[in-house]
Amino acid sequence: MEDFQLASIIVSTVRNAPVLMFAALAGLFAERSGVVDIGLEGKILASAFASAAVAYTTQNPWYGILAGMGVSVALAMVQAFVSITQKGNQLVAGIAINIAMSGLTFVLAQFFFQQGGRTPDLRNARLFDVVLPGTAAVEHIPVIGWLYGHLIGGQSVLVYVAFLLLPVVHWVVYHSRFGLRLRACGENPHAADAAGVSVERTRYLAMFVAGVLCSFSGAYLTLVQSGFFLRDMSAGAGYLALTALVFGNWRPLHTVLGCLMFGLFGAIQIQLEGVDLPVVGRLPGSLIQAIPYIVTVVVLAGLMAKSVAPKAIGKPFVKSR
């Protein structure tokens, strides 16, 4: 029984993490360029609704992913226009997107589907798990069958995309020309401008990439995890992703490890529901559900002072004359 629970926790961790990984890596691009992306939560919700609505209407999950991507990128460009071109307050812009999408997605879902602010079940329009070749042949082999069939295999395409993104993002940020310009704009935009780098263009491109990556978080919520859209179903995933970004000190590998940590606590939360623990007995459901958020507060309290953010983050760039 203990082995089964441990296996379930590991698999649940891998399946919980991609929502945070996509959003955190999206925030990494935005914030490395110097733009605070507190609007991750709103973009996740918007892309989740668009993905679910279009996938249900067309009965094609790939169209849903494209729709979610379009909506998320559009919001990212609005946020970029306010923050970069208009030199507006980046925190206010992000919070405005979060509040607007929390209400608008519910209203649109109610208007189009009349099901209390949710979409119908997607059923065959969901992204299903990938069964690797030879899974049946090794299924009964201890350890190997579980690793191959349920941990490495048996996952959605988006899970593989999330983990494959890590080396790609690391290379882009640290070993590409764009990555060098990205980090320069986030650390010293005036020096980057003096070197001939267009700070505004780099930041716009970073926000575009952030919009694309964030859309996968929303699509994963509806097309993989739940199979429908529900009001505020992101449940703070955008803020948890920002916490993972702080935990990872704005570095790809450490950020992903932070996402896996939150995924682990989410998996433990599921395992604890309805279980009688030694001494303390059965924990209240509300306390169990609060575990990831308690961990968030602890992480922020312990690491915020030690984390070193990009020096120009949150500061509008005004070109020197």
TrEMBL record:
Q: Which residues cross the membrane?
A: 6-28, 62-84, 91-113, 157-174, 204-223, 229-248, 255-272, 287-305
Query: GO molecular-function annotation terms?
Result: transmembrane transporter activity
Q: What is this protein called?
A: ABC transporter permease
Q: Is-annotated flag, keyword Cell membrane?
A: yes
Could you tell me where this protein is found in the cell?
Answer: Cell membrane
Q: What membrane topology does the annotation report for this chain? A: Multi-pass membrane protein
Q: Does the keyword Iron-sulfur apply?
A: no
The record, for CDD domains, names: TM_PBP1_transp_TpRbsC_like
The Gene Ontology CC terms held by the record are:
plasma membrane
Species lineage: Bacteria, Pseudomonadati, Pseudomonadota, Betaproteobacteria, Burkholderiales
UniProt keyword list: Cell membrane, Membrane, Transmembrane, Transmembrane helix
